[in-house]
């Protein structure tokens, strides 16, 4: 019976592969995200192997959403697919959506843009792309929560806890920090794929074979994805080595590198792409993000590491974190206010736009978290200073951590949302989706 | 500005060959003699850990399909996990023999990812054939660390594990050209009808 099962498994894995052959697009004319000075007469795609094009293999869309592509032809042993185009004019950008069938039956898809006498917009702004969905919000929240573990827990270990601690505390900090790095990498990949899928307008198996390279190479969020993925990979390795060698000092380079890498998010978000963006806004966004990670990470460290594992350390850790938390919250509020003023030029935008309303929800959650922290600061801290140990502080810290996670979710929705348009001189700029 | 795929493959093949020869040396002379110098025990786990870091570089340049991006990130994570755990074992931070199961799992998952990420059939071209073979080699080779966990100290596990890396290196060195396999090259890859 066991042999029969193994045989069936082997055949199931070998046979489908024998019939498959999947194509990859190697070159496009006009080039992906390229600029041409005269309207092209045709759009040509070259694949690494022959493909079968459906009738709508190449669709060329103008800003009005109308298809300019005509008949499809093939050449060079069916590796080149060509669409004749008509009605293209100088001064406009166009979106090319392509779709071919490989010999294995899998559908290879892709999207890119090109400009005629103008710069091509990023592929995220291709005609037909959908905006952010709840999937983007969940991926962004997972990324923020992971960063709170990696940056926050490791940072608080380095900045707040004494040099020598109980080995169990050290082990759990290692575990949470490394887990945070693993999760940040995977959440980053998920976010990148989901964001690309919104523009590609594909899902399921088609998404597995979709070409993501225009998004990686021609968008700010793609560049941020590449740099942060590589950097967090290095952070993961350093944290793993720190765990193996039981070295707290080795965590410093991972922590500092992660702080620098977080800058990738302000540089690829609204703070860099909106017409009224300033360097101050980018710095404020980075400070806002880093202080939030450290604050959330601090609460999580107290709730999941210090309270359950090191009763002797509770008082000292709580008091030291309280002092740092005051500074963190101050910076967090100032930086958040600077960012909010840049993104919402009118006070009425707070309740008249969806971005503003999301910000109000986030502010409400932050106030709940601050009130919780204030309660700890005002009532728990004096008792700890007197040498007492209130019973329910551990549970209260867990609840505060949950509120902090809710704040991060609101922040994720806000980051993915489009702020209201900003008046710049005589023109009104539209919110940018190309991050 | 992407690096050529050959360079990455040959770089990893070189690393695998070195790891295979180190492990083969350990299997031949015996663990006690080989690990007379403590750093020698750290060689292959350290290289696995380093390979994990390098694989992220490959992953970010593998965006020509979602499948390639995900497969490379799976290999990066598997190499990091196996390297770190094995390094912790040789450094005495972890003690149970069952930690070898992490290496077994990493090999199995890496092999499965290899099989899934190769989009062409066995006889499509030489590279496709070798990709399938590499995938199956990794899946089958997970038996060696599994055996080390369940029946430790048997020479067969050490020899098998070492030979796996040498074999993988040979296959990786040879898998980049569009060339026929057993005289066959798919029409789709430019072969004659």
How would you describe what is shown here?
The complex is a heterodimer of chains A (435) and B (193). In chain A, 46% of the residues are buried. In chain A, helix 3 packs antiparallel against helix 6, helix 10 packs antiparallel against helix 14 (393-416) and helix 13 (354-385) packs antiparallel against helix 14 (393-416). Chain A has a 4-stranded antiparallel β-sheet with strand order 1-3-6-5, with no helix packed on it. Helices cover 59% and strands 13% of the residues of chain A. Chain A has helices at 2-18, 134-159, 167-200, 204-208, 213-218, 220-245, 251-261, 264-268, 270-273, 279-309, 314-343, 349-352, 354-385, 393-416; strands at residues 25-29, 34-36, 42-47, 58-61, 69-75, 80-85, 92-101, 107-116, 422-424, 427-429. The N and C termini of chain A lie far apart (55 Å). Chain A is of the alpha+beta class and 435 residues long. The model of chain A is unreliable at 8-20 and 425-435 (pLDDT under 50). The A-B interface holds A 13-14, 17-24, 48-50, 77, 102-104, 106, 108, 182, 185-186, 189, 193, 196, 207-213, 215-217, 225-226, 229-230, 233-234, 236-237, 240-241, 243-246 and B 49-50, 52-53, 55-57, 59-60, 63-67, 69-70, 73, 76-77, 80, 83-84, 87-88, 91, 93, 115, 118-124, 132, 186-190.
